[in-house]
Amino acid sequence: MVSILRRVRSRDLLSVLGGLAVFVGLWLTRRYGGYLLFHSLVEIFSIVVAFGIFTIFWNGRRFLDNGCFLFLGIAYLFVGGIDLLHALAYEGMDVFGQHGSNLATQLWIVARYVESLSILAAPLFVHRRINPYALLAAYAAVVGWLLASLFHWETFPDCFVGELTTFKVASEYLICLILVVALVLFYRRRGELDARVYRLLVASVVVTVAAELVFTSYQAVTDNWNMAGHFLKLISFYLIYVAFVEVGMTNPYAVLFRNLKESEESLRRSEARFRGTFENAAVGIAHVDLEGRWLLVNQRLCEIVGYRREELLGKTLQDLTHPEDRPAHDEQFDALARGRINGYSREQRCLDRQGRTVWVNLTMTLQRDSSGRPRYSIAAVQDITPLKDAEHELTAINETLEQRVAERTSLAERQAAQLRVLASELTLAEQRERRRLAQTLHDHLQQLLVTAKLKLGMLRRRASDEAREPPLAELGELLDRAIDASRSLTVELSPPILYDAGLAPALEWLGRQMHKEHGLPVEVDADPHAEPDSDDWRVLIFQAVRELLFNVVKHAQADSARVEMSRTQEGEIRVTVSDPGVGFDPSRVEAGGGSGEASDVGFGLFSVRERLALLGGRLEIDAMPGRGARVSIFGPPPQPREPGGRAPAARPAAGPAAVETRVGPVASDARSAAPGPASLAPIRVILADDHELLREGLVSLLRDQPDMEVVGEASDGEAVVDLALKTRPDVVVMDVSMPHLSGIEATRRITATDPGIQVIGLSMHEQADMAGAMRRAGAAAYLPKDGPVEDLIAAIRNAPARPR
User: Fold this and answer.
1) I need a labelling partner for 176 at 20 to 30 A (CA). Which of 145, 299, 300, 339 fits?
2) pLDDT of 82
């Protein structure tokens, strides 16, 4: 250690003493030999160093793995050439004629620009390979252009005209700035350079900056400031010499082959890591030649097959393969060895040293040489015997479970089918029971109440005692309230209009009810030709639409809704309920609702969809949060109908049809022959109603009218059509709800056959619900049964008379 310190100290001492001797010699040369000799010696040293740097890096370019050094070597070739021209152009040399000091100063600035910009760009090529000939040509072009601007075009700015020009001083400062930026770039790449080379290079740049600053102060090209600047340049080039020439020759790994040395060390470390990974891997790894012989195996592979390393190296991959798996494996290995595939992976059986079966996952990867020809393969072997044993056990368990699941699934499907059938029957039974109760209220209780009101009206008309009027009026109000309550209950249970008029009028009634009860305007556009031919479908669609409208009221936050009924091109019945409200997520329907208040929407739609599916229909939803909703119900196409109307709704018969014809004082066939004006003949009336008490009440009412004659009575729709066509009455008072044939259809047939017969509809329905249907069928008027008897009498009298 002491000897090393002594060698370092003696070397540094010699360097210092040598430097002092050179400084003293150059100073003496300046003093006794003249400034021109001093300048020439300094420039010659700089030129020799520059050419030496180029020579070293150019001749070693094939071995350089650091483009930075080759870039600087080529740059210093041209820097040295320009410095040579600078020395020859110096005042007193007279090589280029009488140019004074301006030409030499211009060449100095050109050389410094080329040097500083090259040092700035050099760090960018630390890890890049460069084309030396292209770079040499680029430098030759740039330097040639600069020299042409000096010697040929003479366009380069003046640098010394009696004194330093502004351009020359500004250029020196700009060169200093460029060199400072270069120092920053080298600092960022310091870890990629040899430490000593980096320090010497930085020192050289710093001295160069100092020299350029000194060169901004001289007044004459031979004064002391100029001399001081050349001394600093000498030191700068000496440091470059030590960094690139001396260090490059004595320690080439520090400059020429630094990255190569680091690559060798990295390669040794990588090899050590590879061997550690290879030997300690959790799977078996081996190198296999193209014949299948083991070339290199790790310890884990030996443990898997139970062989020692020496024993295994004497065998082949095929020797360890189970005989039953050998053909398939040999086919794949042959394709790999021939280079047709780059690798394969397979599960197969191997035989260990004891002849036992070992399941392995074998992965083979082909390795090729630089020309692409197969060399050897790498095998990765993973012992999967425990996994295979567990897989066989799991397979047996799965087979048992699958059988049990299939049995349970079959049972669950049967039970689900039974539940669906039961649910369907329950739904239809509920609707039938609702209708039965509604019919009981409508056909019996309401008719009795109406008959009682009719009798009360007749009694009030005949009573002359004014004292009895208040109790009778109060009794009439009570009957009205009872009729209203009974009608409301009937509508809630099962709207009679659905069976008496059909689905289209029922949907219009439902729209009015939603507006009346919940303040929701509902626009209804229902095509009567799309009428279902099944009561089950009418009820189901009506209930579904009502539930969808309730959802709009409760959840949609919409100010309106629309109901459309039509028939598709395929003949299906389509009823659509849409609203411009807040919308919802249709996925809730698939989930059956979810939870919370919003789940009511999903569960309601889910219920509607299930009920439709039970009868062969379907539900389509087009909705999105914030965009409103559109829900479409699809049912089977309606059956063909008879011309002129829809198929009549099934209605329990009230017993055999009773037809009673009463002949008054003037027979029907003699009225036209009776003498006197036609106005004296009574109005001939037929009463059609399936409730005997109500008919009796109406007969009693009309008998009290001197201008009216009841010529017949009927209790079902078919009977009233036959009776009307036989007796040709003036007026038929027609109940809307009757067995066998509805009052609407009976009206349509009567008016179609004899337009002179005037039909007055009479029903327990509210006028707004049934009047339109009756008028469309041909009725001249429509009256509710619980209305004032005076309205009925007036309607009969106001009906247009038949020609007599």
Assistant:
1) 145
2) 92
